[in-house]
Task: structure prediction
Amino acid sequence: DNSHWIRGFRTGKQGSSHIIKELSELLGKEQTVKAMKCYPKLMRAIHCKRVVAALEEVLGPERTRHVLRRNLELFGLTGFTLERARNAMTVLKLMLGPRDAEHVAFTTPELLRIDGQDLQATMEALERALGPAKAHRAVMQDGVLLAYPAEKVHQVVSALQRIFPPGTAMQALTTDPQLLEVRTETLQSARHTLQKQFGKSRAQGIILSNPSLLRVKGCTLRGTLSAMRDIFRSGMRKLPELNELEEECLAAVKADFALFQTDPQVLRGAMTALQEVLGTNVALDIVKSDTSMLRTGESTIRQAMPLLESILGQHSAKLVVSRHPQVLRARAAIIQRTWRALVKRENGESGAKDAAERNPHLLASSSWLPQ
Result:
């Protein structure tokens, strides 16, 4: 019996020191500190009891320990009760069978705080859209599909069926379940924008190969793709064919979806700064291999490069940055601090320079510095 690690929750001891002790046994010290910083509610023993006891009721002590260590965010959720967890598990077993229900409960434990009737309604909505067998496979692939209200599933499925050819709408949903979080207006706006940019037929192919694009508002899609066109065009020796340029842009945003969360002016500014400090050709090669560099502030790049040149020398600095461009993402204050530490560790600037050239990440991060 491994339930001793939640004994404090059951015996009613509710002092904060006792809660910390019990959580440390459950999660380990580091994870406990992290959990309490993120979720202050944990200082209330009743909240801990509800989360831990509900999960243990269904998953058992050892699997509960594993799940909570892996998903600290569960402590930030409300709605966990013993009765609801039992009810949810009963419904999952009826819908999926005992073995598959246990798998889904383990991989998507947040379902155990949802009313069983709501889970059943969502499953029925998925079965109507996909058919029973495909719905079952979809839920096994990503149990989070059951966390959405049935009405939301119906709305999104209807919208996707208007966008995709017959039989392919649900393939998009199983590829990217986060589409269920998107308003139908956003789905339609994204589709319209892609059709306007690429033509109806080509847009359909683009959406089929990357349905996640439908999560992006039309105005954001337009702005980001325009910025990426400008960036790639500015770095090419000769103007490319339009299709070639568009493919470059699409490949970039597919590889780094966070580009859509960055102001297009930031993207353009970063490229301009990279071209100024490294030259057009090197800048383009770097951006193609690591588009995250475009999310670096222009001023950060402009401040980092002269500082690296003063430390390593102009030739060595350019060589290091061309091989390890991430160094340019470090703030000047970090580079100065790590350089001083390297000089001290290597007993002089000559040794520090050699160390920095071998391992440029030492300049870009302070994580290795003694506390």
In short: Residues 218-235 form the longest helix (18 residues). The chain is about 70% helix and 0% strand. The radius of gyration is 26 Å.
